[in-house]
Backbone:
């Protein structure tokens, strides 16, 4: 989408964004364990981090969210013992996700992991962060995970198809969807330049039936689909290449 078109629509977009922010219910992060161990075999230490979708907003309990389901599915797919932990918070951009992890490290939390899964990007779009800055934040995050936590490989989940979010009005939904597609293209292009980073290829068709009540966050079917896709990606493309 051209910058000219976006500028022409900006008064409408700002008004819609403000009304949408006021109208959408503020969903809580789900209750439940944020760490655990599942499976048998060689141990894989897994760190899941990011924004509200990483934290599981949209479902009532962590057992229906991304992290525990991902760990369980990965343990089966990789025939491994997966020791997992979730470090995520609703509303975080990619840069703020790194700040969250830095704070956790300073608080003496153990963050060592072999594989990290990062779920961010929607708030980069919401906050109108340019895609080049978002990629720079992802690079800083990946570098810190490698050097500060011993992570061998960082898996980035792609941004969802925001143009399908039923909770957003048009043309805000259309414009945000174009922004998300641009961020995804930049993410995937950058990921190909590194052998310790990858982006999961998945297409998630969204509608009110699979999303949370706000029409903005994932529902249980979306978390289940994403957990399966990420688990297979790690089991097939990442796990066999790790060094112990």
Residues:
């Amino acid at each position: 989408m051209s910058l000219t078109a976006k500028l022409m629509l900006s008064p409408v977009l700002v008004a819609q964004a403000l009304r949408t922010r006021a109208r959408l219910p503020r969903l809580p992060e789900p209750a439940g364990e944020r760490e655990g161990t599942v499976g048998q075999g060689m141990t894989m230490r897994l760190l899941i981090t990011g924004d509200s979708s990483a934290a599981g907003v949209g479902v009532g309990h962590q057992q229906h969210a991304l992290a525990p389901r991902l760990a369980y599915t990965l343990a089966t797919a990789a025939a491994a013992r997966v020791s997992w932990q979730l470090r995520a918070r609703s509303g975080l951009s990619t840069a703020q996700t790194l700040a969250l992890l830095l704070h956790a490290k300073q608080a003496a939390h153990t963050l060592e992991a072999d594989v990290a899964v990062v779920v961010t990007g929607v708030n980069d779009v919401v906050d109108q962060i340019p895609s080049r800055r978002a990629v720079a934040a992802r690079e800083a995050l990946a570098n810190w995970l490698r050097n500060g936590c011993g992570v061998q490989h960082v898996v980035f989940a792609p941004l969802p198809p925001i143009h399908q979010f039923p909770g957003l009005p048009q043309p805000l939904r259309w414009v945000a969807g174009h922004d998300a597609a641009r961020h995804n293209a930049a993410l995937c292009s950058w990921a190909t330049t590194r052998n310790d980073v990858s982006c999961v290829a998945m297409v998630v068709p969204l509608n009110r039936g699979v999303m949370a009540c706000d029409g903005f966050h994932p529902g249980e079917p979306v978390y289940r689909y994403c957990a399966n896709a990420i688990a297979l990606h790690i089991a097939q493309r990442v796990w066999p290449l790790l060094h112990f």
